[in-house]
Amino acid sequence: MDEIVYYDRYRRETCIEEVYGDKFLRWTYGTALGKSALHTLVKRPLFSHWYGWRMDRPVSKDKIAPFIKEFGLDAGEFLREPSEFDNFNQFFFRKLKPEARPIDPDPSSVVFPADGRHLCVPDLSRCEGLFVKGEMFDLAKLLDDDQLAETYASGSLLLSRLCPVDYHRFHFPAAGHAGRTRLINGPLYSVNPIALWQNIQILATNKRCITVLETEAFGDVLLLEIGATCVGGICQTFNEGAMVGKGDEKGYFRFGGSSTILIFEPGRIQFDEDLIQNSQQQRELYARVGDHMGTLV
């Protein structure tokens, strides 16, 4: 299988992703025995719940310091000291100091909802594929609502993929009124490109949550959180029905890689040029939560 290449907005260069659990992923999705295990065990919620339970145990605290060192995380950004976490999961969904992720102040901007690697589709009706040219998931299946899919059929989409090494809280991309969250149950396949290169429909069938954010400038924005293998839970921390500010926390993922999706009404947003250019090459752009992602059309 190919290496995972992305473009780093800050370093302004292409990078090769260091995949946490790389050998297990490639065995699971690249061998006959692994694929058998995937369909009989790994994709099932029980497997992820078991792994999440392991990350809640006090002994998992011993994994924190080696993880920080191996992946070069900046502990100075953490709101708590690494030694203050009781287990690995607490560290995994850690909060950061506010100054570590400033929110773009431009009133006409939308910001990235999470740290991660991002792909955009300016017009879903003209999409040429996400990770593989010509390969796109089914919108009606993703939203579990034919009428909603028709409304957003020519809308704009942002996919944000969070790796295990990333900050795992997700935020609102714009200010507005946040509605109730609808849960759609499904399996828990990996959302790593190693899996998505083989089956992009994973994004439309995995367990997911949908929230409608009503905004003045951007219309109704659909906010989705996608579960994945070893994700112990999608946890919402916002108050349903409340007004929220741009960059406010919406929730967090417990242990595991995961993704968020934003879908905008047609003709509402102009994505940033570096995001568009890399997406046209099926190459993700690394950027952090709160940074400028696009502007009002």
UniProtKB/TrEMBL annotation:
Superkingdom of this protein's organism: Bacteria
GO biological process, one term: phospholipid biosynthetic process
Pfam families: PS_Dcarbxylase (PF02666)
GO molecular function, one term: phosphatidylserine decarboxylase activity
EC number per UniProt: 4.1.1.65
Coiled-coil ranges (or none): none
InterPro entries, alphabetized: PS_Dcarbxylase
Key words, A-Z: Decarboxylase, Lyase, Pyruvate, Zymogen
Protein name per the record: Phosphatidylserine decarboxylase proenzyme
Protein's organism: Rubripirellula amarantea
